[in-house]
Amino acid sequence: MFQRFRRTRLNKNLRSLVRETHVRVDDFIYPLFIRSGENIKTEVASMPGVYQMSIDVAIAECEELKSLGIYSIILFGIPDTKDSIGSDSLCEHGIIASSVRAIKAAHPDMFVVTDLCFCEYTDHGHCGIIDEVHQTVDNDATLEISGEQAVIHAKAGADMIAPSGMMDGIIEVLRDSLDKAGYENLPIMSYSTKFASGYYGPFRDVAESTPSFGDRATYQMDPANRREAIAESVSDAMQGADILMVKPALAYLDLVREIKDATSQPMAVYNVSGEYAMLKHAGNANLIDYDRVVMETMIAFKRAGADIIISYHAKEVAKLLLASSK
Ligand code: PBG
Ligand code: ZN
User: Fold this and answer.
1) What's the whole-number average pLDDT of the chain?
2) For residue 43, what is the DSSP state?
3) 206 pLDDT above the threshold of 90
4) Which residues form the pocket of ligand 1, taking CB atoms under 6 Å from any ligand atom?
5) Nearest CA to ligand 1 atom 5
6) 68, 316 contact by CB (below 8 A)
7) Whole-structure pTM value
């Protein structure tokens, strides 16, 4: 005897009752790119709908986000000056510290996550201090200044720190630095399994962080490695990460599931710039039903095990969810 699977598909209400996975507006963290100045809102050609903005514009943007039900953001800074160690990110008056202070003052109810890395702040565009001899990022020298950056973010009022540089041992170092500075309750969301990916292309346009030489393959992961991907996240969990992440999302959903099953921390996915750009441009070219494909993609993240979705689509999703609840 065969099972009549279609029985539970024939009625719309019943389909809702038996639906296994749901996307909610509170699953989302929305990325913002902030630079100095006033009244700046510059669209990024490769990512229609995504802007570099000045702090005043970001504050207005938060008002709109809240009206859509989005209360979590992750900040990326574009400094005026870059140097070999990314000094702007280590300064209380740097772009990120200033942004966090201003946004939290205007919107104390906004949950402000900071991306902790050096690539946006260094003149060479790599995610840490360069070891000139080996022409790569010096892991342990970068760890030392990462602790400083974390405390700068914490003092500015960040609600969660998200290290994205893929330095070994960084979670232990950040936890220790934060604890020593009195921030033992500040959570760390680790970009724990982050691949060296072609999908970051448009982000590097908006964050102005393309490496001036080489690539990030000496610190970000090889897309071919499954067991190493699991070990990376497990290691960060053991070092004290509060939330784990897989990045990019779409091409790595097998690992979202495996890491989710291998750990007990909440899981985030970063639905990266190239993934956004693909759908956006395909939608604009009328090649796909954009809204439908966006929601299908978000459901796929949740089904794979993501608890949190960092996405440039967050505002669109919020609007679609509002429309569908009417
Ligand atoms: C910086 C960082 C990157 C992204 C988030 N943090 C880029 C990179 O590693 O080159 C990518 C985000 C995106 O593509 O949307 N370490
Ligand atoms: Zn980086």
Assistant:
1) 96
2) E
3) no
4) 115, 117, 119, 127, 164-165, 200, 203-204, 216, 272-273
5) 164
6) no
7) 0.97
Nearest atom of ligand 1 to the alpha carbon of 202: 14
pLDDT in tens, 209-243: 889 999 999 999 999 999 999 999 999 999 999 99
Note the CATH architecture for domain 20-325: Alpha-Beta Barrel (3.20)
- The secondary element (H helix, E strand) that includes residue 48 is strand 47-53
Give Cβ neighbours of residue 273 (< 8 Å, ≥ 6 apart): 46, 47, 50, 199, 200, 201, 202, 203, 206, 312
Go through the chain and tell me how many residues it has: 326
CA distances from 186 to 104, 175, 227, 311 (A): 15, 9, 30, 23
* Cα–Cα distance measured from residue 170 to residue 261, given in angstroms and rounded to the nearest whole number: 23
Q: Give first-to-last CA distance, the chain, whole Å.
A: 41
Give the residue carrying structure tokens 């007990």.
264
Cα dihedral across residues 53, 57, 58, 64: positive or negative: negative
Which residue is associated with the tokens 């448009």?
A: 202
